[in-house]
Amino acid sequence: xxxxxxxxxxxxxxxxxxxxxxxxxxxxxxxxxxxxxxxxxxxxxxxxxxxxxxxxxxxxxxxxxxxxxxxxxxxxxxxxxxxxxxxxxxxxxxxxxxxxxxxxxxxxxxxxxxxxxxxxxxxxxxxxxxxxxxxxxxxxxxxxxxxxxxxxxxxxxxxxxxxxxxxxxxxxxxxxxxxxxxxxxxxxxxxxxxxxxxxxxxxxxxxxxxxxxxxxxxxxxxxxxxxxx
Amino acid sequence: xxxxxxxxxxxxxxxxxxxxxxxxxxxxxxxxxxxxxxxxxxxxxxxxxxxxxxxxxxxxxxxxxxxxxxxxxxxxxxxxxxxxxxxxxxxxxxxxxxxxxxxxxxxxxxxxxxxxxxxxxxxxxxxxxxxxxxxxxxxxxxxxxxxxxxxxxxxxxxxxxxxxxxxxxxxxxxxxxxxxxxxxxxxxxxxxxxxxxxxxxxxxxxxxxxxxxxxxxxxxxxxxxxxxxxxxxxxxxxxxxxxxxxxxxxxxxxxxxxxxxxxxx
Lengths: 229, 265
Description:
Shape of chain B: globular
Largest sheet of chain A: none
Helix content of chain B: over 70%
Shape of chain A: elongated
Largest sheet of chain B: none
Number of helices of chain A: 7
Radius of gyration of chain B: 20 Å
Strand content of chain B: under 5%
Distance between the termini of chain A: 9 Å
Largest interface: A-B, 41 and 42 residues
Number of domains of chain A: 1
Number of helices of chain B: 9
Mean pLDDT of chain A: 89
Oligomer: heterodimer
Mean pLDDT of chain B: 89
Low-confidence stretches of chain B: 1-7
Order of helices and strands of chain B: HHHHHHHHH
């Protein structure tokens, strides 16, 4: 077996683990957040992670078509993917925040921490009784940006690995999309609905999800390698 | 997200039966799409038979999502298509890599989907900790349904299972991406729309058939196959009207918005 195949296999496996880890950073509020009665963006994990991941994948693919996948291009593609995802999720959170604050009229507040670890602002007094926080406080926003960057990085890494295996951009892109969904949904099942970010107690469950994704990605990687043997 | 999270939704047809019929019909459909393409029938016959894979997938989604996934019904539809994409592309490309006849593609897709679905299903139970008893079986079924729907609609569009033609016609043109989301919607939407305390198997299945037929319609339009467009939209309309009537019958009360009274002159 060729060494480059093994490198691609390793890259795909690591990419899956990174994608899974990234989803745990994204502040997902689910249905309650859509009514502003929970912290985070008001949609499901899969949709949010997929949105950020696809934008990252697009940005990575656009960069790959410009600079190629060798040498410095590798780094540029990874960065492009990360930045693309960050922009997408950043805009989503910002516009969501505007709607929560000026439309619904709630104060952004995190439920899972007494004081915001970044701004040191007290959070608990602003959480309406009977709800689990509102909007997207600073800590969740920062956490979301970290998650998006990781997600874009993971997507771009998977794309590069598939390109290295010798697939055309179309095939590599399609496989990367399927691959991204498998890992994003595994992560969302691990979270089990909603999460606020890295300060949430549920964040400690991350190793389980990462292990699951490592195994799943390894299987996907083996299937992908078998296609080009 | 679920109706009470109790599961055990009552059903008229057993899940295995619906699934088996869906798989067999869609396999026949894929081969029909390949062999009948010279007669211009690949979309008409292939598309119709393949839409049964969407119905089988939707039925499995109904069964598993009734337990309450915690993340919404769409998530399981999307993972089904994620595994399906991998299996469908692998099913077409692996025979080329190993030099075996490309006609095994649908069977190979089925096998890869079974294996990947089973492993991912086990992963959702063991390290991740989903507490749904039928999770492994459902993930396996969904992976197969997603893979067959994807491969089926793209084969119906391309009209050939030959790897080079398939990659050029389905992947390079982006039809695979359309199949991803169209088949995904057909699989996840029926239960997502019908769930609730008054959910009935018959109604969900009717909507599932309507969703399968409209996916077929979408691909007929993409292929500009006039006969398929007409047949699929007529069949869809019949089933959809039936679904709407059924919903109105099952509703507690139906109040139509009255016409705005004409101004007294």
